Amino acid sequence: MAHLTRSRYHELTDVRAHRPEAVADAAAARRRRPLLADSGRLMLVAADHPARGALDVRGQAGTMASRLDLLDRLCTALARPGVDGVLATADVVEDLLLLGALEGKVVIGSMNRGGLAGAVFELDDRFTAYDPAGIAAARLDGGKMLCRIDPSDPGTVATLQACGRAVTDLARRGLMAMVEPFWCVRRDGQVRTDLSPDMVIRSVHVAQGLGATSAYTWLKLPVVADMARVMDATTLPTLLLGGDPTGSPESTYETWRSALHLPAVRGLVVGRALLYPPDDDVAAAVDTAVSLLG
Question: In the chain, how many domains are there?
Answer without folding.
Answer: 1
